[in-house]
Design brief:
heterodimer; A: 327 residues; alpha/beta; Rossmann fold; Alpha-Beta Plaits; 2 domains; six-stranded mixed beta sheet; four-stranded antiparallel beta sheet; 14 strands; 27% strand; B: 530 residues; mainly alpha; 22 helices
């Protein structure tokens, strides 16, 4: 690692924002006969908080490890801030912070010592390291644990320390593999708050997680992969529209029998079902205007008391579009 | 070796068979002595470090079940290895000159020695947490039992007239081996029988006691250490308010700035006195023998003392190199298994940073030991050169003198080569092996074992190999180790990243692909687990 690389890394921080944070083209990776990734193409924009969703063995970790320069793709290309992860691996390493799904900590070290050590590995000058370590500890809420041995920290604190390590060299892109796994609810909420703060600071974050409800509120964009293939990539809010074949509305109206009859006669309705006093109405397509239903019911003499869209969550979409198959 | 014994020496048939039998028995004895620590020292420490021992205690298993289970599981390979030697050991029976009684006694001694070393390994593994500590403690215990007891017995008899009480020597397996090897036609049978009748039960008793102690102690010391370990601040230190960070930073700041991995090896994984624990008793024995070789009364007493001092120096060299192999394999191995190596790689450290750091960190830790070894060799050379020294009885330019000079000077040169070679070979196997034991075993087989296996050839030359023999010995062992060093260097140069991340086929180099072929599925499974 040379000084030139460091200068280069510093220059990258002010690289044109037109260059996406991550660009993946037709990426494949095989292990012997096993295909972990197959033709994955993906773009992550700057300052995105990008959720990476998939079953166990879907290829999430492989993708993150390729971006972290540990793995060479079998075919295809991946670029981080315009740099090829294979040919320009050294440069890429200065631009990313990688937090794997295991701790990788040295239990005999102290918190500050651990961060100081990684700071030295990144060739951060000794004079600057002290403040950097103090800043990142404050950011992740570990300032009071400066002198503690890592082995004596709780799991949640060790995860936070891992995040502090990732931030020590002020990377532009964070690759976080299951950062909230094994954390208690409070620690998870705190971790998510830290990630949102980092996004506000302009960091691009790719986060792989199984806790989809949290990703739904946290991320602005996401990708779903299964068996190494991309199923969806785009805004989290748009995932339902794009991935669900039909649209569902919930209706409560009186008299119920009249309302049900009217809905069944409506050409925009594909299917109806009464569940606990409410009518679940499946429309023929996503493009169908739900106002037609309201109009039909009111004109037919039914009194409308509830009329709302089905708020299908990321979890339901995920279950709907994936088959749970692994490699 | 047998072929060499048959065609390469001028010995008569019966003495030759006797001699070959003794050499094979000695090799088997060394195996029995070392197999225990290597197979069992990490059996329980590994479970403690991984936190899986607690899970076993949550079931109905007791300390007794776990200890016996672990002993059985880790000992099978060692026992099979010993049994495999027996047909070779029996070959000299065909030459004549070796009796079935001798053979049976030696087999018995070998089994008892193996059981003793295995149980001591399990005992130290049950009361310690680190492989290196358990290994060192087991080796130290065996050294005390095997050699210190013999030395103490010799001194006891030197100061007091020989009595019937050989109880101190009876503790030593090597004493039992010597009596077991005795030719019944020449030996004092009653003395030999008594030595074995006392010695073997005593050693078996020690093994049983170690096993019992392990069963009792394990349930009391398996818990995780969650209390921070207090580290003493050096006297008069006024740096940081925190003792640990302050001390480490002030003393090793330069190392952290220049070679962070060297800092990690030196500061976070210190030897903690393991090396000196083994070296100090040897130095004491060396000092006494060396003193005798200089100021002993007669030539006949100075020469054996010089031989003992030389033998102790050789053992010291081997022990330091052994510890070097342990240090070389343990650091990268533990980083790889914990995933720390990947974090360091993504932090920008490259192959060169790791290997140079490893050499630097280990070099600092072993600096004193290496200087001591050099001093031993030069002291022995000085003793040879001195007027009235131990070799005065031999004429100038004799084969013994030539052998000693070449061996001692060659030992100095070999020390530098071995340091570099052991670290590279150790690094390669630390990255490839699936356990600390496997990494250490593979490193020892490629770095130290060639030299050990050549020792019997030197003995077969009738004890007078001369300067040429010493040169050939050093040259051949260095060539063999050099071959493995070259291979390790190529592997590390071309596939460090692949080896470090434990993934197969991450290279276009065909030789590396072939080399990784065998471990590919293991690596894939490991990867999937992660």
């Amino acid at each position: 690692m040379s000084d030139a690389n460091l200068k280069f890394a510093a220059r990258e921080a002010s690289a044109p924002p037109s260059i996406p944070a991550v660009q993946i083209h037709d990426l494949s990776r095989t292990y012997g006969n096993m295909t972990a990734l197959s033709g994955l193409s993906l773009t992550v924009n700057r300052a995105d908080l990008f959720g990476f969703i998939g079953s166990n063995g879907a290829g999430k970790t492989t993708t993150l490890r390729i971006l972290a320069t540990f793995l060479t793709p079998s075919s295809g290309r991946a670029e981080v801030l315009g740099h090829d992860v294979v040919r320009q691996a050294d440069r890429v390493r200065h631009l990313i912070g990688y937090m794997p799904d295991f701790f990788g900590v040295y239990k005999d070290m102290e918190v500050t010592e651990y961060l100081d050590f990684f700071g030295a590995c990144y060739k951060i000058p000794a004079a600057a390291r002290e403040k950097t370590v103090s800043d990142v500890l404050e950011l992740v809420g570990l300032s009071e644990k400066k002198g503690a041995l890592i082995g004596a920290l709780s799991r949640g604190m060790q995860q936070r320390l891992g995040l502090a390590r990732v931030l020590i060299h002020d990377p532009q892109l964070l690759l976080l593999d299951e950062p909230a796994s094994g954390l208690d609810p409070r620690a998870r909420i705190e971790m998510m708050a830290i990630l949102q703060e980092l996004q506000r600071m302009g960091k691009t974050i790719i986060i792989s997680s199984h806790i989809l409800s949290e990703l739904q509120t946290l991320c602005n964009r996401c990708a779903i992969i299964e068996r190494g293939k991309l199923i969806y990539s785009g805004p989290v809010q748009g995932v339902r529209e794009q991935m669900s074949e039909t649209r569902v509305m919930w209706v409560r109206a009186t008299p119920e029998a009249t309302a049900l009859h009217l809905l069944q006669q409506c050409p925009a309705v594909h299917h109806t079902e009464v569940i606990e006093g409410r009518i679940k109405v499946t429309l023929v397509s996503h493009d169908t205007d739900p106002a037609i239903l309201a109009e039909t019911l009111v004109k037919g003499g039914a009194r409308l008391t509830e009329f709302r869209d089905d708020e299908m969550g990321l979890e339901e979409v995920f279950l709907q579009v994936t088959k749970g198959e692994t490699q | 070796m047998l072929i060499y014994a048959v065609i390469g020496t001028g010995l008569q048939i019966n003495p030759r068979a006797d001699f070959v039998f003794g050499v094979i028995a000695s090799i088997a004895f060394a195996y029995a002595l070392l197999a225990g620590p290597l197979h069992t020292a990490d059996s329980l420490t590994f479970e403690k470090r991984e936190g899986t021992l607690g899970l076993l205690f949550l079931t109905d298993l007791r300390g007794f079940d776990i200890i016996l289970g672990k002993l059985t599981a880790s000992s099978l390979q060692a026992v099979y290895g010993l049994i495999a030697i027996f047909p070779i050991l029996a070959l000299p029976l065909l030459f004549g000159g070796v009796t079935f009684g001798q053979f049976g006694r030696v087999v018995l001694v070998l089994f008892v020695t193996l059981i003793l070393s295995l149980t001591l390994g399990v005992f130290w593994s049950s009361v310690t947490r680190e492989f290196r500590t358990a290994l060192t403690a087991t080796l130290a215990s065996l050294f005390v039992l095997t050699f210190v007891t013999i030395g103490a017995d010799w001194f006891w008899k030197y100061w007091r007239p020989p009595t019937a009480t050989d109880w101190l020597a009876a503790l030593s397996p090597v004493n039992s081996l010597i009596y077991a090897l005795d030719d019944p036609r020449r030996a004092n049978l009653s003395q030999a029988r008594r030595a074995l009748e006392i010695g073997l039960p005593v050693q078996a008793g020690i093994a049983a006691t170690a096993l019992l102690a392990a069963c009792i102690l394990l349930p009391r010391c398996w818990q995780d250490l969650t209390t921070p370990v207090a580290v003493a601040r050096p006297e008069g230190f006024r740096g940081s308010t925190h003792p640990l960070v302050g001390w480490r930073h002030v003393h090793w700041q330069h190392l952290m700035e220049t070679q962070p991995y060297g800092w990690l090896v030196r500061v976070v994984r210190p030897l903690r006195g393991n090396l000196m624990m083994l070296l100090v008793p040897l130095l004491v024995v060396f000092g006494v023998a060396y003193g005798f070789s200089i100021v002993g009364g007669t030539n006949s007493s100075r020469w054996p003392a010089f031989m003992i001092a030389s033998g102790v120096a050789y053992v010291a060299h081997q022990l330091v190199k052994f510890q070097l192999a342990v240090a070389a394999t343990s650091s990268l191995g533990s980083d790889r298994s914990s995933g720390g190596l990947e974090l360091l790689m993504v932090a920008g450290l490259e192959r060169k940073d790791f290997l140079d750091g490893l050499r630097r960190g280990i070099g600092i830790q072993f600096r004193t030991a290496l200087l001591i070894l050099l001093a031993l060799n030069f002291l022995l050379l000085a003793a040879m050169a001195s007027n009235g020294g131990p070799l005065q009885a031999f004429s100038r330019g004799s084969s013994i003198q030539g052998f000693c000079v070449v061996a001692l000077l060659g030992g100095v040169v070999a020390l530098g080569f071995d340091f570099s070679m052991i670290i590279s070979i150790g690094a390669r196997h630390a990255l490839r092996a699936s356990s600390a034991y496997q990494a250490l075993r593979d490193t020892l087989l490629r770095s130290l074992a060639p030299g050990w296996l050549l020792v019997p050839f030197l003995l077969l030359t009738g004890g007078e190999p001369g300067a040429r023999g010493a040169f050939v010995f050093l040259f051949v062992s260095m060539v063999i180790t050099g071959f493995f060093y070259g291979r390790a260097t190529v592997d590390l140069d071309h596939g460090f990243k692949t080896l470090a991340s434990g993934l197969p086929f991450d290279t276009d180099d065909w030789a590396m692909r072939r080399s990784f072929q065998r471990s590919a599925m293991t690596d894939v499974r490991r990867y999937e687990r992660r």
